[in-house]
Amino acid sequence: MVGAVLRTGVVLVMGWLAVLFCAGAVQAAPGGADAPTQTAYLAGQLRKNPVFISDQIPRAVPRSTAPDFAKEARRLGVPTYVMILPNTHYGSEATGLLAGVHDRLARKGLYVTLSPTGLDAVQTYGVSLPGAEDASRATLYELPYDATPREVFRHFVDVLTSGHAHQRAEAAHAKYGDSVDELPLLHTDRTAREDQSFATGVAVTGIPLTAVLLTLYAVRRRRVRRAAAAGGGLSAGKGPAAPKTTAGTKRSPAGSKTKGTKGSKRGSEKGGTGGSTAGQGARTRSIGASSGQRVRMLPLVMAAVVLGGLVAFTASQVFDDTTSGDGSRPTAADMRARVDRVAEGLRRDPLYVDPESPPALDAAERTHLRTQLRALRIPTVIAAVSSNPDDESDGEKDLLVKALHDRLHRKVLIVLAEPSDGGIELANYGTPVDPTYLMNRPRYLEYSGSADPALGRRLDQLLTYLGKAPTAKPGAAESDPLGYDPPPAVDPVEEQALPGLFTGDFHPGLVLGVFAALLVTGLVAAGCGTIRVIVMARRRRYGAGGGSGAAHGPHAPERPSLAWLRRAARHDLDALTAALEPATAPEPGAPEPMAAALPAEAQRRAWECLDAAALLIDGDSDGRIDADATPAVLACAIVLARAGRTAIDEPAAARHVCHRNPLHGPARKRSEKRPGGGTPGGATHRTTAAAGTRGTGGPAGRRRAASAMWTLPVCEGCRVTHGAVLKLRSQEGKGRGAYVPYATLPGPLAALADGAEIDQLTRDVREYFGVH
């Protein structure tokens, strides 16, 4: 009897021990009946390592980057616990999660939570770290939304250790407020790369083509101006023909040469010798000859190609990013960590609930679901885990299910449950259940979550429905569990790699660059045309340089500025050069130019005017107007150049110019009496010798000068209404002195106030420079 009692007692004790042992094993198993809560699980992970990175976000934050976070945390000088979790894993406020983790961990320090979108919460427990909250706010405002968690945490540590966390937080809030999107992005994404490629394409063709078109436009405008100055248009796109002369020598119309001697005054000061009349004409041709040259397209095209290559090279150096992000790359272990964890949990228990997520099932629901799973004829497992674009499957649940089956290596019906919205999906791998029955399940058990997101109730309804599932017909072919073969997930390294700069939208940019160049050139041409119209209208109304001389000629201002005189001298000298050069050397077979049919006297006068003007303004013989040319010298050159044109256009009217303002042009009449009782400027009558020349000596010259006292040459406008006397700046202050009548200034121009002829003026100029 005693032995039977002892045996009974031993059996009972062993049974109780077996029950306790099994219960402990179930509790210790992941996903078991008493699985740890989210806070307990996270506290356990932080106890092992102060930096915990969820294995559900390897694309955004690989677990292999934990040492980088730990390195930054050590800069704070206090114990720091960092958790990086998916955005969906905060069931309540992030600060509440930190408090729960601290209660479980029971360690002093700074607790930080981050997600792929940035810094979520910071909290200190038992340590003094002023400015932690301010550093968190400053980080929120100072970084754009594309900053990675590693960059966010580094910036947070930088602000916190700077000692100015509060000031930076206030300044950032005042500057940006809620407009965080206004900050420039830290990284180049694919959209930005497409924009860069497009801009590069536009620049590669637009800039060189614009330069070519503007150059051609400028050359064309210069040819038009030269042709207009010569009195004709461009013929077949060609400029005036260049004369054929021997080196350093140009024949005069009579075919003779003149010799020059060393000049005095201006010629000797510049160290040059007095040139011949023909030699001065050769120098004059060089002043404006470049505009008549034909543009050579090959060098221009080559320059455009080189410019386009430089633009492309510069763009490749500026837009040199090859990848997006902070350089973090997940390893193979990072990419398979979650699948291995979930598969291992399903091997131990048919119901696996993700411990990193907020609890979606309470203890009673878990117990009930396990009971139902054991009662099913169909081998079934449930994985309650979340999916997001940063996980190993790129958010594709079909890929996650397939990966789990590849790890389990057995026939099973996998139920994938989404804790956030209660959605469920099924995948049958070889179990003997009718596939049609699984596909035709009620609406509330479809793939996505319904209006009732309670996961426990939905899973209970699903298992009840599966308990009634009929067996597949014998011999029925096993169908694809997913209905299709899901494509593999995008490789994370390739996902962050940027396309080449010269791909994608680069080619449309090339095409648009051509249209942009045409548009810019058109706008420039339209703008220049508008300006020309305005300037010409102003000249017609007020005269070329302003003043009151408009009634006597569009190019005869009363008080011309030095800048106007220089422009007019170049223009008029170019016009006379262009009009004379074809007359000297016409192309073989070409029709005889107009100037070639002129009388010898008219051609002689035109060439002498051209040479005298060149002597005045090109003493250096370098083809440019001298920098020290005075207003009187420039005005004299303009008068000579215009007189030369008059000798070509109207030979009979080329002897005299208006004595009141020589810029008015030829004088066809003489005044009936001495205007104003004296010569321009109020001076008494003087001979040309008194003006610095010797051309009117002798009794005949004195008689001509005396008669000019009462009949002085005037233009048509001054004959009807006396125009203002030409006034030029004096030589004081390098030509910036007061305006005075031109007759009071030294130089050959003053002789025109006494009615001197143009031929006399050219002789005076040659004598003034010692040219014979």
From TrEMBL:
The keyword Transmembrane helix applies. Residues 228-291, 658-703 are annotated as: Disordered. The chain crosses the membrane at residues 198-219, 300-319, 510-535. It comes from the Bacteria. Keywords: Membrane, Signal, Transmembrane, Transmembrane helix. Residues 682-693 have a biased composition (Low complexity). Residues 658-672 have a biased composition (Basic residues). The keyword Transferase does not apply. Residues 1-28 form the signal peptide. This is TPM domain-containing protein. It comes from Streptomyces bugieae.
